[in-house]
Amino acid sequence: VDAERYFSASGQAIGRVDGERIYDASGRQLGRIDGTRVYSASGSQIGRIDGERLYSASGSLMGRMDGDRLYDGSGRQIGRADGLRRMQMIVFFYFFM
Q1: Does the pTM exceed 0.70?
Q2: Are 28 and 18 in contact (CB under 8 A)?
């Protein structure tokens, strides 16, 4: 992640954030985050954020953040994000994983 742009491990641009809206590398809107709610491009709620926990639209725990570490819903560490802001990690989790 470089500011509001997201890159793959090989350095290829995969998306960006503009305010609350999230776009893929082609400029197509993937969704948006409005407060604690996460929406798809069609406007359907796909998740919500409660503190450091990330939930699906149905209320199932999808994952959580603990400092710079990301965990899946079963508690298995799935990544690290040194120096990223909370919102950058949330965007990555919902839209680029």
Answers
A1: yes
A2: no
Residues facing 34 on adjacent strands: 37
Q: Supply φ then ψ for residue 8, to 5 degrees.
A: -75, 175
Question: And the tokens for 24?
Answer: 């893929």
DSSP single-letter state for residue 54: E
Burial of 32 (0-12, 13-18, 19+ CB in 10 A): buried
pLDDT, tens only, 41-93: 999 999 999 999 999 999 999 999 998 888 999 999 988 877 778 888 888 88
Nearest to 40 by CA among 56, 54, 52: 56
Q: Is 75 within 8 Å of 65 (Cβ atoms)?
A: no
* Distance between CA atoms of residues 29 and 66, nearest Å: 28
